[in-house]
Amino acid sequence: MTGLSPFAGRIIWALKLKGVEFESVEEDLTNKSDLLLQSNPVHQKIPVLIHNGKPVSESLVIMEYIDEVWNQTCPLLPADPHQRALTRFWAKFVDEKVTSIELNFVLLKAFASMWSALQMRGKEGGEAALEEAHENLRILEKELEGKKFFGGESIGLVDVTFGSFAKLLDVLDEVMGSDKKMIDEDKFPLMGKWKEQLSELAVVKSCLPPADKLAAAVQARRNESAAA
Amino acid sequence: MTGLSPFAGRIIWALKLKGVEFESVEEDLTNKSDLLLQSNPVHQKIPVLIHNGKPVSESLVIMEYIDEVWNQTCPLLPADPHQRALTRFWAKFVDEKVTSIELNFVLLKAFASMWSALQMRGKEGGEAALEEAHENLRILEKELEGKKFFGGESIGLVDVTFGSFAKLLDVLDEVMGSDKKMIDEDKFPLMGKWKEQLSELAVVKSCLPPADKLAAAVQARRNESAAA
């Protein structure tokens, strides 16, 4: 189910932006392959990029690697050291505060519960976590002020780091037929515009998460909720 | 009490390794200064590096910034993209799995409890966390095989990221007069050697955490334990 991972999505976006040919290998995370276990023995997680036979793990690390190796087109990091530091700061912020697996899970749970009319209120700190998620989205929204992309006039590291996640949420919204978007565009208008700008890029269009797989995952969760 | 922070320590090590003149401003974290709040409004945490009037936050980000701006001496990152990726991978590993504030707290608590003959066993998952800490140290120990420093023949980003923490633990051992070291050298002999190699560097010698402040912090914790 690696096709659903926004972390794997970052790498696919980055490689496509650079125009690099690659082969994407799906991984069954309930039965990890020897290739994965040997390539990323420490974390045993996707994504892993294998280039010239050498593996690189951790999506932020992989993206910087891609940017350094294929440095002739579409820079993901700017040239100026201070701008580079800000870019790394925000990519880390998105990684730790917005797209972390735990948060992802809370968002999905909250959404699944809206959909199945279950209440999250007060349960397992769900509401506090959701409020924190919104607070972090507000911080990010502010970062988009006066800019087309987080990277400025063109897509950069922060756009890729956050974009693969935002697009996943969009497809989820669609699949679930919700009348309210997970990243609510009334609350986050700049983010709404940013997602439109992203959607106009051919590369991004070619990287949409697979709606059929997402629909199946949603159905599985729905069955779990009904059984609980 | 920023003098006790291994995260601030990383920046001081990095600047000294580069031979950069700097002024260190102490911060009372119970009463944060306007300068800190304005310089790092998102996280409101130390360390922050202010260079040419522009702030940079997050210690890993700051270290890369330092390496890029003062790139003529003592490279913290190697030149080869794959080696750079591995260096970033291990710095991230140390940051997230070994020196994270939460883990720091568990280690200190476990140590304080040994010292005051309180038992951590089964309490608040302390033992499981400590076991995880040891497992992560074992992974790091393996990374030192056949190498003088994590950076190879000379000190690099991973050494700085982990070293400021390891030295803090050493001084803590000393201050507390423990007969067993927090990073047990029987269990982690390569790390023991590595710390010796570090200690031989003049720059590291000049960065030892302040024993008097640590002694006061230990005493405060001792009083807390006695009162509990």
From TrEMBL, chains A, B:
Annotated ranges, domain GST C-terminal: 80-227
Gene3D superfamilies listed in its UniProt record: 1.20.1050.10, Glutaredoxin
Pfam families assigned: GST_C, GST_N
InterPro entries, per the entry: Glutathione-S-Trfase_C-like, Glutathione-S-Trfase_C_sf, Glutathione_S-Trfase, Glutathione_S-Trfase_N, GST_C, GST_C_Tau, Omega/Tau-like, Thioredoxin-like_sf
Gene Ontology annotations of biological process type: glutathione metabolic process
Alphabetical UniProt keywords: Transferase
EC number: 2.5.1.18
Catalytic reactions on record: RX + glutathione = an S-substituted glutathione + a halide anion + H(+)
Chain ranges of the GST N-terminal domain: 1-74
GO MF annotation, one: glutathione transferase activity
UniProt protein name: glutathione transferase
